[in-house]
Amino acid sequence: MMGWREYNFDGIIGPTHNYAGLSFGNIASSVNAGQASAPRRAALQGLDKMRLLHGLGIGQGFFLPHNRPETDWLSRFGFTGTPAQMCAAAWREEPDLLLAASSASPMWAANAATVSASPDTADGRIHFTPANLSTMAHRSLEWPETQRQLRRIFPDPQHFAIHDPVPARYGDEGAANFMRIAPALELPGTEIMVYGSPRDAGFPARQSAEACRAIFRAHGVAGGLLAAQSTEAIDVGAFHNDVVAVATADLLFTHELAFADKATLFTALIDRHPDLRIVEVRDEDVPLSDAIASYLFNSQLLILPDRRRLIIVPVECAETLSVKRWLDAHIGGDHPISEVRFVDVRESMRNGGGPACLRLRVLVSPEAEAAINPLFVLTERRADQIAAVIERHWPERVTPADLGLPDFWAQGWEAVRALEAVCG
Ligand code: SUG
After folding, report:
1. What count of Cα atoms within 13 Å lies in the side-chain half-sphere of residue 95?
2. What are 148-196's pLDDT values in tens digits?
3. So where are the chain's domains?
4. Ligand 1 pocket residue status of 262, Cβ below 6 Å
5. β-strand 225-228 against 190-195: which pairing, if any?
6. Does the active-site annotation cover 357?
7. Helix or strand or coil: residue 127?
8. Chain segment 278-325, per-residue pLDDT in tens
C-alpha cells in the first residue's frame, strides 16, 4: 500500500487576530487578554510552519481565514444596515458580540472538524464532521464557513463525506479530541475520542461524550474508543486533549495525567495493537502546568518519507526548563522519536494555540489525494503569493481599542477578499 500520505491543512491566521480573552479555561487566552497582537507576524509565523512541513515532504494544505467581523452572525441579533453600521451598533450596545464576531479563531484548524480515516470507515470514504464549537460563543459561528470550505477542498463524494455538525446542545471541538492508532497509517486502526465529563465547577469540559458517539456512528466507525479526560488536566488548563497527548500510527505520546482512566484505555489499545509504543511523560519530570505552558504535547508528530519520526514543538518548549530537560534526555538515539524541531508560533500560542492546534490532519490514499482541490494545496509558489497578500493587507499591530474602529473592520474584510482573489 504505497503512496498513502497524511496531509496537514492549516488555518491561515486571519487579519483580525487579537487577544480578547474569550476562552475561559484556556489559560493563555485569559492571561494575555488585552495585549496588543501582531496579525501580520502571526500569519507569517503560521505560513513558515506550513513551509517547513512542505519542505519535509509532508502534504500541506490550508483553509482560508473567515470573514471577520462576521456580520451574518450579528444580523441574527437584530443588527441591521451596512456591515459597518452593524458593527458600530454592536460595539455600542453589545461589545462582547462584536468581539466574538471579530475573532480569528478559525486559524485553529484542529477544531474545524473530526476526520475519520478511510481504512476505518464502513464505506471506505474519508468522513468529516464540522465541529459545532458550541461551548464558546466566538467559536460557535465557525462551522457554516468551515463546512463550505470542506466541500470546496474535498468535493468528490466518491472519496469524501462531509456531514452536518452534531446539534449544538452537545459540545464538539473536532480533531483536537481525536487520536488514531494503527500499525501503519494506511492500515485499519482504532479511532479514539476524548471527552470531558460534565461538571458544575472548574473549567468547562468542551467535548461531550454524546458528540463523540454521534460522530463514530455517522462516520461508520465500528470499534471506536471513548476515553475521558482527567478533570485534573482540564483544571490545569487542558481545555482540549491535544494539549496533553498526541498520537501517530503506532506511537502515543502523552502526559501521565491526561486521562481519567489510562489503565483501561492503554489495555484496550495494547490488546488491539500489540506493537503500540506509549511514550509517557511523568508529572515529576514535566508537571502538567509546564506541559500546558510549553505545549509540549501540542506538537506535530510526523512520519517522514524515510520513516523517521520527527516532532515539531513550539519554541516555548526550549524555554521551559523541565520540558527542555526531558527533550534533551529522551529524543534521538533509540527513542521512537528521532528528532525535535522548534517552531515560532508565538502569536497563536498567546491565545492557547500551538503547532497541532493550527492543523487538521487528513490521511489520503493516492486516489483520494488526486481528488483534493489543488487550489488549497500549498506549493512554493502558492506560499509566496499568500505571503505577499499578508505583507500587504494584514495589520501590523492591533490593540483592544482598534477592535471598535471602522478602519479595522474594513481592513479585515478587504484582506480576506484579497487572499480569496489570489487563491482563486
Ligand atoms: O478555542 N483560543 C482557542 C485555542 C484553540 C486551541 N486548539 C486546540 N487545542 N486544538 C480556544 O480556546 C482564544 C481567543 C481569544 O481569547 O481571543 C481562543 O479562542
Report:
1. 8
2. 999 999 999 999 999 999 999 999 999 999 999 999 999 999 999 999 9
3. 5-68+103-422
4. no
5. parallel
6. yes
7. strand
8. 999 999 999 999 999 999 999 999 999 898 999 999 999 999 999 999
DSSP, residue by residue, 190-206? EEEEEE----SSSSPP-
pLDDT, one tens digit per residue, over 329-378 is 999 989 999 999 999 999 999 999 999 999 999 999 999 999 999 999 99
Query: Catalytic residue among 6, 70, 142, 173, which?
Result: 173
Residue nearest to atom 11 of ligand 1 (CA): 23
Query: From CA 67, how far away is CA 74, in angstroms rounded?
Result: 12
Alpha helices in 201-257 (DSSP H): 209-219, 231-236
Residue 29 CB–ligand 1 contact under 6 Å: yes
| 289's grid cell | 502546568
Q: What is the position in ligand 1's atom list of the atom closest to the CA of 18?
A: 17
CB atoms within 10 A of CB 116: 26
Q: What is the pTM of this model?
A: 0.97
Instruction: Pick the closest to residue 194 from 253, 133, 262 (CA basis).
Output: 262
**339 assigned to active site:** no
- Beta-sheet pairing, 300-303 with 251-255: unpaired
Q: Is 39 in the pocket of ligand 1 (CB under 6 A)?
A: no
CATH 3.75.10.20, domain 5-68+103-422, yes or no: yes
Residue in 17, 127, 240, 255 annotated catalytic: 240
Pairing, β 277-281 against β 300-303: unpaired
Confirm if 323 and 290 have CB atoms less than 8 A apart.
Answer: yes
Q: Half-sphere exposure (CA, 13 Å, Cβ side) for 16?
A: 32
Residue 46, pLDDT above cutoff 90: yes
Give phi and psi for 285, each to the nearest 5: -90, -50
Q: Closest Cα to residue 145, out of 211, 70, 75? A: 70
What is the side-by-side strand order in the sheet with 126-130? Answer: 113-116, 126-130, 160-162
8 Å CB contact between 383 and 391: no
Residue showing cell 477592535: 403
Residue 273 a catalytic site member: no
| Ligand 1 binding pocket includes 104 (Cβ within 6 Å) | no
Verify whether ligand 1 is closer than 6 Å to residue 16 (CB atom). Answer: no
The pLDDT tens digits for 131-146 are: 999 999 999 999 999 9
- 3 state SS of 412: helix
| Grid cell locating 402 | 482598534
